[in-house]
């Protein structure tokens, strides 16, 4: 029976470099923030930081859809579009923790603008704020929530239906691009807005098939329902990995 040193999950944990500083957080407006030190001072508990999507990817590898797969990708949809990668049993971190940055992949150079001024990127099409804003602005109903927009699309409202179909197609193109580059055994689709898949599944799979390289087999996609406590589970796995790494 292999010992802990032979466990592939621990092998990838040992090579991970988890920084104590938040280099940038667009949603929170943070830059070069020594968050680990600040939290440790406040609560007197050892603190480790990691990217939220990588933490969710680690959860999927240890306890979720990624169990039994040496390579898989996690694509998240919500306030942004994120991606985590496991290749050869190891979570990919990239230089300075920069990996899986798919949110601003260009979908259509004639498309809508995102908040960074990019025209037609994945985030401009498929993030929940962009979907809500596009529908609410077009039909002059600023009170609409994201879930209201999904309900309108499900009921066949022409504007909402068009926006959700374009969002699903953009998300399918992102997944195809990730699969074309990394060749994963599985792509897990999740995130706080993944329930939009129920409304745009057809557009998603049409785009996925159209953009998957012609020499590759069909991309296996698992849609993972999301609860907000998944973020806490990601934090717990990150802390556990750090504890095992430094014991």
Quick tags:
single chain; 247 residues; five-stranded mixed sheet; 9 helices; 7 strands; 12% strand; disordered N terminus
How would you characterize the overall build of this protein?
This protein is an alpha/beta fold and 247 residues long. Helices cover 45% and strands 12% of the residues. It has 9 helices and 7 strands, in the order H-E-E-H-H-E-E-E-H-H-H-H-E-H-E-H. The strands form 2 sheets. The protein has a 5-stranded mixed β-sheet with strand order 5-4-3-6-7, with helices on both faces. Strands 1-2 form a two-stranded antiparallel sheet. Strand 4 and strand 5 form a beta hairpin. The longest helix has 25 residues. The N terminus is likely disordered.
Count, helices: 9
Question: Rg, please?
Answer: 19 Å
- Extract low-pLDDT stretches: 1-17
Mean pLDDT: 87
The percent of residues in helical segments reads: 40-55%
Overall form: globular
Q: What string, H for helix and E for strand, traces the elements in order?
A: HEEHHEEEHHHHEHEH
Sheet having the most strands: 5 strands, mixed
The helix-and-strand class reads alpha/beta
What is the strand content? Answer: 5-15%
* Number of E-state strands: 7
Distance between the termini: 21 Å
Widest beta sheet: strand line-up: 5-4-3-6-7
């Amino acid at each position: 029976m292999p010992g802990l040193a032979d466990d592939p999950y621990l092998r990838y944990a040992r090579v991970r470099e988890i920084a104590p500083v938040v280099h940038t957080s667009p949603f929170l407006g943070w830059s070069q923030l020594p968050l680990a030190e600040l939290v440790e001072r406040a609560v007197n508990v050892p603190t480790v930081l990691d990217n939220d999507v990588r933490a969710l990817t680690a959860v999927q590898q240890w306890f979720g859809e990624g169990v039994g797969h040496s390579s898989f990708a996690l694509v998240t949809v919500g306030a942004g579009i994120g991606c985590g990668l496991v290749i050869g049993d190891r979570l990919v971190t990239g230089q300075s923790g920069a990996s899986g940055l798919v949110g601003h992949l260009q979908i259509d150079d004639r498309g809508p603008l995102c908040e960074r001024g990019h025209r037609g990127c994945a985030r401009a099409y498929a993030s929940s704020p962009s979907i809500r804003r596009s529908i609410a602005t077009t039909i002059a109903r600023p009170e609409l929530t994201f879930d209201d927009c999904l309900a309108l699309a499900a009921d066949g409202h022409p504007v909402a239906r068009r926006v959700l179909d374009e969002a699903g197609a953009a998300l399918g193109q992102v997944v195809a691009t990730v699969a074309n580059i990394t060749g994963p055994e599985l792509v897990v689709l999740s995130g706080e807005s993944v329930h939009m898949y129920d409304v745009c599944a057809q557009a998603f799979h049409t785009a996925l098939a159209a953009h998957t390289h012609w020499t590759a087999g069909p991309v296996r996609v698992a849609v993972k329902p999301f609860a907000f406590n998944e973020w806490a589970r990601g934090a717990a796995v990150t802390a556990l990995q750090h504890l095992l790494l430094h014991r």
